[in-house]
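Structure ticket #2291
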Amino acid sequence: MSLLWNRLRVRVHLGTRVLAACEVRAHGRSFAVARKALFPFAPGARAPALLALREWMGSGDAASIEWVLGPSDVRYLLLPWSPELADESLRNRVASALFEQRFRENASTHAARFAKARFGQPQLAAFVCDALVAEIAMHAREARLRLGSIAPALATVWSRFGSVLTREHGVVHLVDGDRQIAVRHERGHPVDIALRPFDQQRDAPTLDAPCEPGMHRRFSSRAPAGGAASPAHVLMLNHGQGFDANADAAYAFALCGLF
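Resolution: structure written out below.
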């Protein structure tokens, strides 16, 4: 095999009850999935899954690891537009106050990430617990891998499909296990965001129903029932070497941005 194909990385999606891991080989701007595996865990008990992931990675030759965090491990909120929030110090204080008011958690124990500010539009902020960041960093060190990135799933999906969403007004549903993030947007600019439970029997028929273009979109880690084709309004990754966008939906968040 050409040395150009030897740049290996591991992409991991931290879902509600599963780690979805892919070993990806890069060749310029092309990617191929060399291996993939799922590591289930019970809520609040992911240590055995992390250990199994580290052992799985140990049998490969990857040099780095990149994480995509699902809805259970990220808190999102929207900062109202104000020219005063161009001051990053003030923005951070306002975001922390809103975070503590909404989630009843200590903002000082969370790392905040902000979307690019746009004139007249709310600004999206994502908060991740410092303890989780430290746990992921320790895991990378123990596996002797470079920690490439830790990204919220919403930011990853928005970056991948932003060119589609900027032409639409509607709601995007990010479905991950039994959780979903519902983002109402106007031409790709989030104006409302909510974390909701997801029930396959109750919610799937609604999200799969035909709709006017742009009214609602779905990006999911669930494969279509019975191997059926996904509805046209579902946001789908491209098929690629070692990856079938329908059959391998469990890895969609892990591979979002590559395919």
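Closing remark: The chain has two domains: 3-72+129-255, 73-128.
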